[in-house]
Sequence to fold (224 residues):
Amino acid sequence: MKKAVVLVSGGMDSAVVIAMAREQGFAVYALSVNYGQRHTSELQAAARVATQQGAAAHKTVQIDLRSIGGSALTDEIDVPLDATPAAGEIPVTYVPARNTIMLSVALGWAEVVGASDLFCGVNAVDYSGYPDCRPAFIDAFERLANLATKAGVEGAGIRVHAPLQHLSKADIAREGVRLGVDFADTVSCYLADDDGRACGHCDACRLRAEGFAAAGLADPTRYV
Fold:
């Protein structure tokens, strides 16, 4: 069975990506990153999602991005509530180089387990304006992966899949329902409490709630 390393944050997007990878016939090696984010309830959610979706393995690695800060998710900066970033503005919840770092770790694990495919849940439609969610970033990282690894130079090559890139949050919600994803097990909120209950006011909560509403689906999120 072909193998894929799938980045799993514990949110709704990565839960759908695992299900999509499984539907395509991949044995999923789920990878989560404890990078010093504000709460760890999303990592607990990632473990639930990996189990629910039948991942062959689930690993959580530690990377201390809090030591460099620069983000409302890793520093003493307030998370904006009930606010939409101005057009073209990169919000303070952007974590410097986070997706580059996470994909690099996933790439390393892929070489170890013999996987030629990486999956991630980045989205370029309903997202917060992060530069490392754009299709150009994914294309550039795939080129880098094939230049910088033994698997890329001597093996079958590395492919980076971002199957949600061009889907709206409503489309993602519908796809998750089709694939049997239990969204109640996921945590998207930037300010979730220790029990994984969402604040309902941050940008992540707003996008998630709008997605369920636009899809005509009941919102299974647990709110404080």
The first strand starts at residue 3 and ends at 7. Residues 3-215 form a domain with the Rossmann fold fold (CATH 3.40.50.620). Helices lie at 12-23, 41-52, 98-113, 135-148, 150-154, 169-178, 203-215.
